[in-house]
Amino acid sequence: MEKNSRARKSMAVKDDCEEVSSNKWEYINMTQQEEDLIYRMYRLVGDKWGLIAGRIPGRTAEEIERFWLMRHEKAFAERSSQKK
């Protein structure tokens, strides 16, 4: 019985950690106020995207995280500079 509960917990964790391919990401435009709020909230709470998204109406945690990664990840920075 303990083995089954471990398997269920393992499956639940896998569902929560679903990765999205960055190849199909579109650039997310944020207003200056949204960007400022994201940076300030990130300094306060870290990468708690759901908490940050709760402060920005109309934005999801996934959008906020994707925006952050696109701005701060080296691979995205290189890609965007090649497009220009």
TrEMBL record:
Keywords: DNA-binding, Nucleus, Transcription, Transcription regulation. GO terms for cellular component: nucleus. Residues 31-68 form the Myb-like domain. GO terms for molecular function: transcription cis-regulatory region binding. GO terms for biological process: anatomical structure morphogenesis; cell differentiation; plant epidermis development; regulation of DNA-templated transcription; system development. The keyword Ribosomal protein does not apply. It is found in: Nucleus. It holds the Pfam family Myb_DNA-binding. It comes from the Eukaryota. Its main location: nucleus. This is Myb-like domain-containing protein. It comes from Dioscorea zingiberensis. The lineage of its organism: Eukaryota, Viridiplantae, Streptophyta, Embryophyta, Tracheophyta.
